[in-house]
Amino acid sequence: MVTTRARGVRPSRGYRIFQAVNAVVLTGVVVVTVYPFLTIVARSLSDNAYIVAGKVNLVPRGFNLTAYRVVTSDPAFWTSYRNTVVYTVVATIVSIVLTTCYAYVLSKRHLRGRTALVGIAVFTMFFTGGLIPNYVLVTSLGLKNTVWAIALPNAINVFNLLVMKAFFESLPVELEEAAAVDGLDTYGTLLRVVLPLSKAMVATMVLFYAVSFWNSWFAAFLYMDRQDLLPVTVYLRNLIVGATDATQTGGGLGADDVVQSAATIQSVTIVLTVLPILAVYPFIQRYFVSGILLGSVKG
Amino acid sequence: MVQMSRRQVLFATGAAAVVSLAGCGDDTPDKKDLDRNRDGAMEKYGVGDQFTATAPVTFSILYNNHPNYPLKPEWLFWSELAKRTNVKLDPVAVPLSDYEQKRSVLVGSGDAPLIIPKTYHPQEDAYVSSGAILPVSDYLDLMPHFKDKIEKWNLGPEMDTLRQEDGKFYLLPGLHEKPWQEYTLAVRTDILEQLNIASPTTWDEVYAMLKAMKAAHPDVYPFSDRFGKPNPAGNLLNMLALSYGLGGAGWNYHATSWDSGAGKYVFTAASPQYRQVVEFLHKLVAEGLLDPETFTQTDDQARQKLASGKSFVISTNAQTLVNDYRPDIAKINPNARLKKIMFPIGPAGPVNPASRLENGVMISSKAREGKNFVAMMQFIDWLWYSDAGQEFAKWGVEGTTYTRDGAGKRTLAPDVNIVGLNPKGTKHLQKDFGFANGVFAYGGKLDLVQSFFSPEEMEFQREMNGRQAAPWVTPPPAPLTDDEREQTTLWATALKDYVTQNTLKFALGQRPLSEWDAYVTELKGKNAQAYTDLVNKAYERYRKNHG
Questions:
Q1: Cβ separation of A238 and B97 shorter than 8 Å?
Q2: Residue of B89, B91, B170 whose CA lies nearest to B128
Q3: Domain span at B166
Q4: Closest approach of chain B CAs to the CA of A241, in angstroms?
């Protein structure tokens, strides 16, 4: 007791209240966000009958792994899973390279035409060509049914670009000056000085891009004409939305069309789809924690 | 920046050009001149003939990929189809979940496959003005089976409902010999027996039954319904309105409905029949007979309530009864029994409210220029409209997937299963063979349509087919011009939202029914009258121009 008091300043009352409130609110947020996911996990391990009866919350009822066996034995699931991995990796690499280059260039105040270049990027934030012109463009470039239809049109996310540009701008000019004095050209500066100092930034961007490509389905849905090219998100969407929509369209549908995709199967697919991207977070986290510019500029 | 937007303009013009070019095909003067399009076509092809292309041909087709039986290239369906017709289909596989959106993009960009199935009227309306879709009614001479069925089954009036402003139709619908009403109510018969009441036949009896159930089980809402999305209580409203003689309510919502008595179109949600429907719903809710959550809950929630005994009545079709409700409840309450009751009769009398038209096939206008055009139309005619083609699409290959006895009754092969008809079968007719596929197999003769039905369902259909067809199934054509369609689209959303909102308010008692007249006036303020007038004008115009 005595030592603790001696060591630090006693936190003020206001600060302690703030901490308490903080803890309560954040715990609430955690519960709200984690609960649905845990429910899905519980459902994926339960017997379908209990789910239908509304008896599954956080604890699986009628525990079994049949649904996992069913889903993992479906070759179409693994094909789409592989597609998702390939699309995510390729698209993320392309995106990171392009975004970094663009952002680094834009961060240099002495660049001529910088305003115009920023303008072009920002313009696309507010205006798009529209669905059909985009489709015609991608199709006539021959990108349809290739990974490039997914990777190229969405390669640069302007928001990410601006964040990255702001980050590069905040780097001390002296560092790059020092690099120039030591004989590095622009590329050398970027690769050997700036990027190693931007690990946290790049990691964040990788995470942003990877998550968004992993979760995206629309581009693939639009530009892929064959079932074996579709990512797992489309597979999942068809399973879930298809199951509800078929009954929604109503009277005209033949009995063959009424989809009966068991609740367990849906949950299993959700769990298997979310798991890998969830596993990425802890690995990237460590870049956030370690300091960014510790000791690079002195005095 | 300048260059960029210029490029965008270029592509936009390009897209527009594609669309308008496609439109030109329609205006070629020699519409009947098909000499350049006869490659692969049969010289003589008539009713009862097997279509076989004289040379191997390939047609692209938009394929609605069902999650329950995902497309497989090795299906017997494809190989046998090629063997019989010499046609190879080249499918563009689109997930069922977003089929309509992809179809719009493909048609809009001029990149659509030649054959575009699974189109529900009036979805084709949107594509008509662009000229991207072929006016198929011009080419019916190439389709003997289609024409034959229309004639034999007197489907003329039904076909007229598809006609556009130019008097043509752009969709080849699925044709049924008899109407097929799928939806009605499922009721817990063990509760009926306990209470000693007969299975209800009219909505009044349904009301009495619910009242008796409530009296015996005061703590439950006896009726908690599903099929409530995207239109709240979509199926219930639709069924009720149909029994009251109104065509366009609930999930079948249309702003205007045909009033056969008055001989004109009326605004659906302002009609006296709609008022009666709403009053009936209000009565059910007010007396605690209908779960108020019916209007907002998901299908799963309604299923859960039924399974756990928190409700006794729910909307159903033949499939949901067998696949959902019975297995759900069997594990929880082995004594519970559920039955599909006859479609309840309302003031409109005993009618069969189902249409004899199904979803159908659109043809891309590009096909008309192709050298295989005639062969393609003959092929479509054979596969979708000939008895042999329909049987093939549904049952597969005789001797492999099914057998026929002397009386013509079909039986699945011992190792083949579908809809639980042959539980011992290890292979699935849809998943492993590609037959009974929603893209290719629908409609047809009564005995074919009913060939997968359970005895229970057969009884239901027998009774329903004894009822006369409802007049609103074949409203007279009232096709709008492009400008009119644009105008009504602008009004439609606000009107529909307002109708939905107030239907719920009236039903749930949040707005007293005494305010009905005020509500009708409010609708007029949102152009309900103008909308109805426009439709009636279109109806008169069509009658004058096309007799």
A1: yes
A2: B170
A3: 21-178+358-393
A4: 5
| Interface size between A and B, measured as CB pairs under 8 A | 158
Question: How far apart (Å, rounded) are the C-alpha atoms in residues A111 and B363?
Answer: 55
Identify whether B492 is part of a domain. Answer: no
- The answer to whether the beta carbons of residues B25 and B365 sit under 8 Å apart is yes
A241: left (phi over 0), alpha (psi -120 to 50) or beta: alpha
pLDDT for residue A8: 65
In percent, the amount of chain B with pLDDT more than 70 equals: 94
Residues B28 and B118 in one domain: yes
ipTM score above 0.90: no
Co-location of B287 and B339 in the same domain: yes
Q: Are B105 and A132 in contact (CB < 8 Å)?
A: yes
What domains are defined for chain A? 13-64 (no CATH), 75-288 (1.10.3720.10)
B102-156 pLDDT, tens digit each: 999 999 998 899 999 999 888 898 898 889 999 999 999 999 999 999 999 999 9
pLDDT of B321 higher than 90:
no
**In this structure, are B51 and B173 located in the same domain?**
yes
Extract the tokens encoding B457: 């369902």
How far apart, in whole angstroms, are the C-alpha atoms of residue A7 and residue B216? Answer: 73
Report d(CA B130, CA B485) in Å as an integer: 14
**What's the gap in Å between the CA of A179 and the closest CA on chain B?**
34
Q: What is the pLDDT of residue B511?
A: 95
Helix (H, G, I), strand (E, B) or coil at A25: helix
